Amino acid sequence: MAVVAVGVALASALLEAWWLSIALLIAGLGIAPALAAIFTSVSSSLRFSETAEAYGWVGTGQLIGAAAGSALAGFMIDGVGPRGAFWVGGALAVLGVIVSVISVRWLPDLRGKDAGPRPDTEPIELVG
């Protein structure tokens, strides 16, 4: 998310087409790792039967964020011009970094573990 914030901050300063495309390319480089981390956390911390609902909530959050960000950016464009949209994007990306840093303690530690979904059932040892 920090890469996204840096790219969007650069985009707000550089509104010429070539520089803008380079800044947004930098911002886009941070999206794939962020989404991979989100989906890996969901799949590895829930049972397989619960993942569909969890992915639904993740998608809902993304859509709400896109809608709210677009609305705020529209107000800023009306108020201060095109740079305002990038200010909103940069501020929301920084907010995403802050939320990520705070919430990392509640995510499962996946180092050295299978990132696949937890099984719905487990083998039972029979003594006999």
TrEMBL record:
Keywords per UniProt: Membrane, Transmembrane, Transmembrane helix
Pfam families per the UniProt record, alphabetical: MFS_1
Entry keyword Kinase: no
Every Major facilitator superfamily (MFS) profile domain range: 1-128
Principal cellular location given in the protein's record: membrane
Membrane topology label: Multi-pass membrane protein
Protein name: Major facilitator superfamily (MFS) profile domain-containing protein
Taxonomy of the source species: Bacteria, Bacillati, Actinomycetota, Actinomycetes, Micrococcales
